[in-house]
Design brief:
Elements: E1 2-9, E2 12-20, H1 25-29, E3 35-45, E4 48-57, E5 66-76, E6 80-85, E7 89-93, E8 97-98, E9 103-109, E10 117-125, E11 130-139, E12 160-164, E13 176-184, E14 189-198, E15 208-216, E16 221-226, E17 232-234, E18 238-239, E19 245-249, E20 258-266, E21 271-281, E22 297-304, E23 315-323, E24 329-337
Antiparallel strand pairs: 1-2, 3-4, 4-10, 5-9, 5-11, 6-8, 6-10, 7-9, 11-12, 13-14, 14-20, 15-19, 15-21, 16-18, 16-20, 17-19, 21-22, 23-24
Length: 353
């Protein structure tokens, strides 16, 4: 085997000659640089990873003034290589980019003395979080005029694996939902309770609106509006079939807060009653719109009994006949109206003997 005997002069290797060593070649191999690598990766900030690669010369002679560090990242789903720094003078390729399964190869300029260490610090980001694995290795260049790395087994560090949490979701936008219940509230009277809840993550717009439409097969009258939300509604009390009732609520609902709008109606002839309410946030460029329009509308249907028919006239007769003297008879016929209204005028009586 061919080896060289280096002469150390001011910390540098000078190859004095190249010759054949026949005896004890292992003694020659033991004298040389020995680069070892260690690595630690930590989550430096949300979705950001910092990996410190430490290269140490544990050999018996300094290294030549150049060696390489190779850093490979495997991640799911996406990882971005941001930068490299540290105490070692590195020139790395590729530059910052998405780096899944792409090796970053860094040329290090400068020699490591015996026992000396240097660091290369790699910064990565995982915008959506996920599984992150990083492996690093170091290599001395092949140079026939210099001894090789005396122990290549410690040139590759055990890979480091981390789980990166996904970003915390931003609060959901406002989301107003409606729930409507209508019930018969007296003879031919209806009360509709509309509960509006902000199920979103931010306060609702101020103001917001409610539109309420009644559909019925007989006349319906709006008689009043109220509730904890203090709505301002138009039109006022009137016949309301298929006429929208538009209410403005001049307040805001905090997340998970609720309020009510009460609408009262009469349906003098009774019949089929349907009422639908739709809530809407106001347009505001500084605020996200309602995040879910599917829960903005709710309807209620019921049947209202009509009034009972008015009571009719009902004439009844009661007749008593008695002897009233010699060969005389007196018949008394009592006519009574047992109905609910006055009898006709005139009415007749037929008497047959």
């Amino acid at each position: 085997m061919k080896y060289f005997v280096p002469v150390i002069f001011k910390g540098w290797f000078i190859a004095s000659s190249l010759f054949t060593v026949l005896l004890f070649p292992s003694l020659v191999l033991a004298n040389g640089p020995d680069l070892s690598v260690s690595k630690s990766c930590v989550i430096a900030s949300p979705q950001t990873i910092k990996c410190d690669v430490v290269v140490t010369n544990i050999g018996t002679v300094p290294t030549l003034p150049q060696f390489t560090i190779t850093d490979t990242v495997t991640a799911t789903p996406v990882v971005n290589y941001l930068s490299v720094g540290g105490s070692l003078a590195t020139s790395c390729s590729p530059g910052p980019q998405q780096i899944n399964n792409v090796s970053i190869v860094c040329n290090v300029t400068g020699s490591l003395a015996v026992g000396a260490s240097g660091t290369a610090i790699f910064d990565f980001s995982m915008p959506t979080g996920g599984e992150f694995q990083n492996c690093a290795s170091t290599t001395l260049p092949v140079n026939p005029m210099a001894p090789p790395d005396s122990n290549s087994l410690n040139n590759t560090d055990i890979c480091t694996t981390l789980t990166v949490d996904p970003p915390t979701p931003s609060p959901a936008a406002q989301d107003l939902s409606t729930d409507k219940v209508c019930a018969v509230n007296g003879v031919q009277s209806i009360l509709c309770t509309i509960t509006i809840t902000n199920v979103g993550g931010t306060a609702s717009s101020n103001p917001f609106t409610l539109s309420d439409v009644v559909t019925a097969n007989n006349t319906v009258n709006l008689t009043g509006a109220g509730g904890t939300l203090n709505p301002s509604c138009s039109p006022g009390a009137q016949v309301i079939n298929n006429v929208p009732i538009n209410c403005t609520i001049n307040s805001s609902l905090a997340p998970n807060a609720s309020g009510t709008v009460l609408l009262s109606f009469t349906m003098p002839q009774g019949g089929q009653f349907e009422n639908c309410a739709t809530v809407a946030t106001s347009q505001n460029a500084a605020q996200a719109p309602d995040s879910n329009a599917a829960n903005n509308k709710d309807c209620a249907t019921l049947t209202v009994e009509g009034p009972p028919p008015p009571p009719a006239q009902d004439l009844s007769t009661d007749k008593v006949c008695a002897v009233n003297g010699v060969q005389s008879i007196l018949c008394t016929i009592t006519i009574t109206n047992v109905g609910g209204t006055a009898s006709s005028n005139p009415f007749t009586l037929s008497d047959v003997v």
